[in-house]
């Protein structure tokens, strides 16, 4: 399977060489120190935790924090200078596989995979995330979009490097984000390290381009709610280290408007405990087969 490597990106999350992976490990070891810019050095929101809920008084912003400042934890393409999506188009003609064999034909031998199939109204697409582990090495992940074409599946977009562990994991889900009775593929990429960036790429239409721009959430998680994506993240004040945000936590609402993802609202959620927060999360580690 041909895959597209993401290079030339901002942030250390776009590492494309073993030295960059080592640097991510050093950042993880130093997660208790540093200033706010270090938070963007790749990382992963943990999954498998219960959804966060409040049993105390209603949440409010921490003193001095505004909704606009809190919403800065969610980025949406136009405010991510120099950052491009992970998924990129595959040169045509792309690799092909037999449609009758289903998911088994869409991932490489020796890799474990999860597949999600959707009808976008223009094409039938299958999103695949696959992973392979080597002894003593971090797992390697890849993500691929396939489009049904006659009796074949044709690869249209891909992300990842077969030899470099770019993410802690990748996941794929489906949603009707256009509200038209059809569905799109939503890929989540969780980087390895202390920076905890969750990137979201949405693919629809004929499977050759993203729907809107990429979204990114710092130290957070995301869920799908109808036509909206809800993101959750701690709120950092200027120069605060990765370990210790004091601005509380926020839930941002992200919607597609005129072809662009826009944060349309931000509200506080109840204060969280120390360490990584237990935010609601639809993009935890997938169940691979």
Please characterize this protein's 3D structure.
This protein has helices spanning 18-29, 67-71, and strands at residues 74-76, 88-89, 96-98, 112-119, 124-132, 140-149, 152-160, 167-175, 184-191, 197-203, 215-218, 221-225, 228-234, 249-257, 260-269. The chain is mainly beta and 289 residues long. The chain is globular, with a radius of gyration of 19 Å. The two termini are 18 Å apart. The model is unreliable at 1-56 (pLDDT under 50).
Secondary structure: elements and pairs:
Layout: H1 18-29, H2 67-71, E1 74-76, E2 88-89, E3 96-98, E4 112-119, E5 124-132, E6 140-149, E7 152-160, E8 167-175, E9 184-191, E10 197-203, E11 215-218, E12 221-225, E13 228-234, E14 249-257, E15 260-269
Antiparallel strand pairs: 1-11, 2-7, 3-7, 4-5, 5-6, 6-7, 8-9, 9-10, 10-11, 12-13, 13-14, 14-15
Please state roughly what percent of the residues sit in beta strands, choosing from under 5%, 5-15%, 15-25%, 25-35%, 35-45% or over 45%.
35-45%
Number of helices: 2
Helical content, roughly?
A: under 10%
**Weakly predicted, low-confidence segments:** 1-56
Give a nutshell description of this structure:
The protein has 289 residues and is mainly beta. The protein is 6% helix and 36% strand. It contains two helices and 15 strands.
